[in-house]
Amino acid sequence: MSNLLEVSNVSKKYGQYTALDDVSLHVPKGSIFGLLGPNGAGKTTLIRIVNQITYPDKGTVMFNGKPLQPEHIAKIGYLPEERGLYKSMKVGEQALYLAQLKGLSKKEAKERLQYWFDRLGIGDWWNKKIQELSKGMAQKIQFVVTVLHKPDLLIFDEPFSGFDPINANIIKDEILHLRDQGATVIFSTHRMESVEELCDDIALIHKSRKMLDGKLVDIKRQHRSNTFEVGLDTTNHQALRTALEERYAVSDAGFKSLSDELKLRIRLQPGHSPNDLLHDLMSQATVTHFVELIPSVNDIFIQTVKDSDHE
Amino acid sequence: MSKLPLIIKREYLAKVRNKSFIVMTILSPLLVVGMAALVFYLTKANNEEKKVIGILNEGNFFRAQFKDDASLSFIPFRDISLEKAKDSAQHQAYYGLLYIPQGDHIEDVAEHIAFFSKESPGLSTLSSLESVVRNQVREVKLRNFGVPDEVLRDMGKNYEINVSNFTGEKKLRGINEIKAIIGGAFGYLIMMFIIIYGAFVMRSVIEEKTSRIIEVIISSVKPFQLMLGKIIGTSLAGITQFLIWIVSAGFLLFLLATFLGVSMGELGGSQIPPDALDTVNNMSGGAQEKVQLYLMELLNISWGILLLSFVIYFILGYLIYSSIYAAIGAAVDNETDTQQFMFPVIMPLMLAIYVGFFSVFNNPHGPIAVAFSLFPLTSPIVMLMRLPGGIGAGGVPVWQFAASIALLVVTFLGIVWVAAKIYRVGILMYGKKPTYKEMYRWLKYS
């Protein structure tokens, strides 16, 4: 069993509106899984189904090899995008309550809260009311409450919103730390750079359907276009460019460099290898820069969504 | 599930620790008792002020008939003219001047009696003066016909019709009204409780929605558990508050009674309708044994059944209404949006109370009373007004009682099911102003 979560052919309708249409995906154990999609794509519905807040009309969800059941709730930690705390309750009391709702005993919950509060340096907040805390502070409490019961599966919906860069970094490190300790993380966000940085696997949902999914490297491999960015040191930029345009698809490149070389983006025909290109270039100029253009998650996201809208 | 007690505990503590809740709990009995004391004091002060009326009697009739009583006192003028008497009455700030002219026949005199005053006189003052005149005229005329004194004396006697049922058992007058008041008090209690604490449930649901904690919570517990925990927690807080109110109000009233020498009966008296009050007055003037009969009759009310039905109707009625309140709270985003849904909720409660007071008191087993004590949204209040008459012969027929409870249970299940569905969908909906149509659609979501 290498998948912690397997969603198979799940559909969900709200009246006439289809929120999810035959979506299947699997989340490998111990991975950080990026669940991507434009607003209103159906991500939240899918997450709510996994949390058993709502139920699919069709399809199955398997958790650790077994059909999803109410007792799995204790093994899932969920930080919703729309989140908040009871404003007039004290921090400690509230954290204890939420932890106990997840099935922890009071004693256990207290010990673990102590650990986390110390770890994040927020121990002196225990007797403060939530309304006295800033938004970022409240977010920290929420993070602690989400992970407190050591869930196998952590679901974070926009976990970094409301954090300053320093605290966002702290939370990011904690997420990685939890992954290293064996937790599986589903991560839903619009911040592509954090997907790039954190995720091993991704799935893209658009208009209620899954557009693509798999290992991030595999997806990038599929989307690579055999395009290279090159920097060429030559005296006559125009002549070289014209010569190259006869053999390759050439366009301008905009990478940053220190000298004033010719910067080009060269797309290879199928069958050509990078070595052929490199040889060719070296015979004509000094190569100062040679790098394969790997599509960013951002590019893949936008490309996929645009393509599907044109269909 | 062990989560329900947790939720109940949190809801209870959140409510009980709330500042405004604490203030209300402490202040309300003080306010109520203070108001009662004030009203009592004012009434007393008002009654103690006697109205002084000057009398100028120029003839021979009505010489001794106008006597001082609790509210009027008379001061005679002698040997002065009417104009002077008026001046004098006005200067001495008398309430008025009663002028009785000279004449040979009492009827002529009576017709020309006049009353002068600065403000137009109160109706009760006038009518008491008029009744003195009327009685005297009658007495004099009867005497003129040669009617002996003892016959005249007997004519004032009152006769009470004895009431008993067909088997000859004695019945007491006004006992039905007294019983209905007892039942009505229970019904009224239910209504107040629903209105106050139902709104608490609603506000607490809205608070969870606006603070956005709801999704965090229902990823741990079922929405239905949360709703139930909220309703139970809030009602326990409500019961706590009610108990504190009853105990402290009772204590304060006791203090008040001791210090001011006010009897409890006087304080409560203003709330009893005049009919029943008359009976009470008659009986205190009448034989002591009658009091005992009333007490017996009150003790004969099947209190066991009454209290048991109170508990049943209270729990079911409260659960029905508070789950409706919870559903409304879940459907809206803020309290201002609740207005459109509140009226249909309050209406049956109001209807029950008014129908109860106007119809059930007079005719506890009439068709209207029966209909409203069967209809589940009004039965918790109306049926309780009928129940002190007992169940079975002479009281509420057994089938009606059974049908009322059965209908209430069925409605309870239905409404809680519907409310739970609306609640479940509604708590996750933001930014939409819901309509009835929309809520109907939510029912079909799985």
UniProtKB/TrEMBL annotation, chain A:
Domain spans labelled ABC transporter: 5-232
Stored Pfam families: ABC_tran, DrrA1-3_C
Q: Which InterPro entries match?
A: AAA+_ATPase, ABC_transporter-like_ATP-bd, ABC_transporter-like_CS, ABC_transporter_ATP-binding, DrrA1/2-like_C, P-loop_NTPase
Coiled-coil region(s): none
Record's superkingdom? Bacteria
Q: Which UniProt keywords apply?
A: ATP-binding, Nodulation, Nucleotide-binding, Transport
Q: Name one GO molecular function term.
A: ATP hydrolysis activity
Q: Which family does it belong to?
A: Belongs to the ABC transporter superfamily.
For this entry, the protein name equals ABC-2 type transport system ATP-binding protein
- Source species: Sinomicrobium oceani
TrEMBL record, chain B:
What is one GO cellular-component annotation here? plasma membrane
Q: What GO molecular function annotation could you give as one example from this UniProt entry? A: ABC-type transporter activity
Question: What sections of the protein cross the membrane?
Answer: 21-42, 180-201, 242-262, 298-321, 341-361, 368-387, 399-423
Please list the residue ranges annotated as the ABC-2 type transporter transmembrane domain.
Answer: 19-420
Task: Write down the InterPro entries for this protein, in alphabetical order.
Answer: ABC-2_transporter_component (IPR051449), ABC2_TM (IPR013525)
Bilayer topology annotation: Multi-pass membrane protein
Main localization (coarse): membrane
Listed A to Z, the keywords are: Cell membrane, Membrane, Transmembrane, Transmembrane helix
Q: Where in the cell is it found?
A: Cell membrane
The record's Gene3D superfamilies line, in alphabetical order, gives: Periplasmic binding protein-like II (3.40.190.10)
Name of the protein this chain belongs to: ABC-2 type transport system permease protein
State the organism of origin: Sinomicrobium oceani
